[in-house]
Amino acid sequence: MGDSSFSNLYSHPGKYLEEHLTQVAHIAVTNWEATSVSTLGEFSKSDLTRLVKTCGLAHDLGKATNSFQGYLLSEDKEKSPKTRHSLLSAIATFFLVEDEFREATHLSEDQKKLLAFIGFLAVKRHHGNLEDVLTESFFSAKEKETLLKQIEDIDADRLSTLAENLKSSGLPSHITKESWARWIEAFSPETIKLRRKLRQLGKENNLNWYFLNNLVFSLLIDADKSEVTVGEVPRKEVEIPPSIVNEYKTTLKIEKTYLNQLREEAYQEALNQEIDLTTRFFNLDLPTGLGKTFTALAFALKLREKVKAEQGYTPRIIYSLPFLSIIEQNADQIEKVLKKSGLTVDSSLILKHHHLSDIYYQEGAKEFEPDQAKILIEGWNAEIIVTTFVQFFHSLISNRNSTLRKFHRLAGSIIILDEIQSIPFKYWLLLREVFKQLTSLLNSYIVLVTATQPLILEKGRASPLVAPQNYFPRVDRVTIRADLEESITIEELVDRLIIRDNQSYLFIMNTINAATTLYQLMKEKVKDKIAYLSTHVVPRERLERIKAIKEKKFRLAVTTQLVEAGVDIDFDVVYRDIAPLDSIIQSAGRCNRNWGTKEGLVNIIRLQDNNNRAYSSYIYDSLLLRETEKVLLKNNVLHEQELFNIVENYFYLLQNKKSSDESKDLLEAVYRLKYASSDQQLGIADFKLIEEDYPKLDVFLEINQEAQDIWNKFLEIKEIKDQWERRLALNKIKSDFYQFVVSIPINVENLPPEVSGFRYVNNNSLVDFYDSETGFKLKGGPAIW
């Protein structure tokens, strides 16, 4: 269309409204049709294409008011009720979807109404978070009055031109001021009928509506954010042969050891598996240190290749892990494999995404601007995405706009969940049901990777990539000795310790307070340098210490549980304060990891504080501890070969004894589309993978010149007047900035001062707040610290 054909209504400065609406609809439909999903519950792919297209074409219709158009042109950008556009657009969407499906004889009237309501929800909340759908079905007289005034505030001629242009792009009916006003009048009676159906959802025990609602919402908001910032970004499908992992391995200097022989045997067994594409779950269950990363990646690439050959689409690979420290480690390994194969490794091929990711996106020779990069990263625009459990699981179960935006990327993907035992038991039932629907409705594949396979899925549902019973009995690197007859203090532990000159020692404590106390007492006992690790040490320093430990610059280390999963360090002897059995097994993975000439020893002890309370009781569930103690008191000496069967029995016991009430309540919320709760019942928003036991806040610590330079840059950015420009500038330094940030309890006695909205300790005051060895000096605060 030439400029004269446009309505002269704008969605954003310099962008015609019909241009934006048409492009958003196009991007959303393109993304949907690119998925491998052919049906979703009772609805065909064509049904959902029509729904998504109508939502895209209608989602910003409310911007046609004179008030909104004036707001776009104004200097101060001050919003008012007259400039709001989401509800006005949402009601138009409801009736336009009804028009779209009016002649659809294959759908019932209830189905059509619910499709219209899903369109309404997506548009109403496309700038916010999803709420309880029952609450959303109420339409007040005040809202009605405001909307009718907004209709009066629309130029009829410009709306007519807009409607004609959108009709030619596929909008199902011609919208006028009069028809729009009738819709507003008619909406309240419609919601009364809808509420009867919505109240039935919880009784149906059907996840289809949840997946459908999230999918439409995700497609719309991703298309909307992308169109405004980067426009359409066609996917660059890259052929990644599974053989590249093996080719990379041949370039490594791998010693001929028994452990490496086992690694290769497991790798070949997994890669030689015949893949049945009707199987949706796979598990890779191997002892720690047997090369699960390479094996999982190679299998995923083989599965990707087979899906492409037989089903005609290319799945993305989403590799998810629980902790930031191992994300960097695994992403680096994968990048090395890709680079060695000769592939052009850019952001469209592999992407790291977590809350501290660098805001940087490059495709070929093109570097995107920070605002564009942020949109591309958060939208998972890559073939391989390496991300945290928090990002993945909160994309799957959430009410938040920012996380649900990626939901449609899960469709047809191959999802590797590494260290799956990190998922809290209370969510197993919820995830079991959601995983089933993710694979059946969205056509995804899930690979569970662990050394201690939890019973998240029913036994036999996942196809094993290796026979774990062929590997666990053949590794005998570690003996676990439990001394739980009495509880001892940290002082008593240190008094009893015998540190031998020819051995290395790792002490894993349950709280920061316990780790700090032990570290101070150990310094008095031994002459050797001791590495100390906890989350009160700034991340930059923690990473440097872990690197030094790997390089054998320390033979003694005191740490909290942050080293348990995936951190590739190796000690001869480990002391572990009592913890749930799966945590103990993970700790044992840091002992004699590379199978030296001597057997490793893991000592399990029960430490108590000066109030005679076990440190373990501050952070772990009492049932998990009781069941672990039963196992260890019955078998106070355990050999690594025995662990597979013992851990399996432990998880069976938990499944039979531990309550799944929270999972059941959350599952009920999912069935009912209760995204947020205003009563005593749980809502979907209450799903939190990481529980915050105590309110915390972040503190920036100016520990060196680099930190000082970053802080000064932060202060400069805070002076930027334009909020969008300021936000972009902050995103550019975010990754470096948080290398010098620790989280502390909000109720400590020595809370640092607030500067420019952030708690800050300058270099001159550092000695008052920060110890160069043990990190933030906490005064007061909860006992867990």
Structure description:
It is a single chain. This protein is of the alpha/beta class and 785 residues long. The protein is built from 28 helices and 26 strands. The protein has a seven-stranded parallel beta sheet, with helices on both faces. Helix 7 (141-152) runs antiparallel to helix 9 (177-204), helix 9 (177-204) packs antiparallel against helix 25 and helix 11 runs antiparallel to helix 13 (292-311). The longest helix is centred in the N-terminal third of the chain and has 28 residues, at 177-204.
Rg, Cα atoms, Å: 28 Å
User: Which segments are poorly predicted (pLDDT under 50) over 5 or more consecutive residues?
Assistant: none
Sequence of strands across the biggest β-sheet: 7-10-6-11-12-5-13
Q: How many strand elements?
A: 26
**Proportion of helical residues:** 40-55%
Apparent shape? globular
Structural class: alpha/beta
